[in-house]
Amino acid sequence: MRILIYILLIQVLLLSCKKQSEITRSFNCKNTSFNTLEVITDIKKIFSVEYPKNWKTNLFYDDIQSSIYTADTTKELTKSVLLDITFINKEMNFNDYFKLKQEQDNLSKNLIQITSKEIKLLEKPTYFTVSKGKKGGFSYVICNIFIKINNQNFILAKTEVYGDYLVNERLCQGIRLIEKIKIH
User: What residues are paired with 50 via a beta bridge?
Assistant: First the structure.
């Protein structure tokens, strides 16, 4: 009887682990729920994402990109999450040159890269970095997630948090919303 209980417990644990993506496991994210999500589609109708209805959202596009930017403006900056999801029509590969360029970009902005990793997200090859520093007088953490859609297109999804209040939890909120991206 004990063996059966242990087997069932192991199965439940394995099933619950499968529900988390690689990136949420990397951040040790707990389940995050949002009140009243709405689907926002970019201007070019290339992708959509679900955001909380009360967050302020802006759309932008030009010849090579289309983006959806949102933030929880109901909270002060140091307790909020800022998200920018941009579909970019440009070739991108996760080679050494690309990774070095990300580190150099961070250094030019006085940011220190904390971690980086290649994973799968949305069933696509993905590379993410987490960097920290100061911005506007606040401590600042940014998670850049590069999702390779195909040979000619990728998504850059940025989650930014300012201040020291529940930094990981706020990053996880952004990641949970990024996981809701739908490519059309």
Answer: 39
The edge-to-edge listing of strands for the beta sheet with 37-41 is: 37-41, 47-52, 182-183
What is the amino acid identity at position 122?
A: L
* Domains, the chain: 22-183 (3.40.1000.10)
Beta-strand relationship, 82-88 and 111-121? unpaired
| Helix, strand, or coil (residue 62) | coil
Closest CA to 177 of 90, 69, 94: 69
Pick 20 or 39 by higher pLDDT: 39
Q: State mean pLDDT over 139-167.
A: 96
How far, in Å, CA of 81 to CA of 18, rounded? 26
Scan for tokens 């389940």, then name that residue: 31
Instruction: Give the tokens for residue 184.
Output: 């059309």
What is d(CA 112, CA 128) in angstroms, rounded to the nearest whole number? 14
The whole-model pTM stands at 0.87
**Separation between Cα atoms, residue 160 and residue 7, nearest integer Å:** 41
Q: How far is CA 36 from the centre of its chain?
A: 20
What's the token pair of residue 117? 């990793």
Amino acid identity at 148:
K
Phi, psi of 178 (to 5 degrees): -60, -35
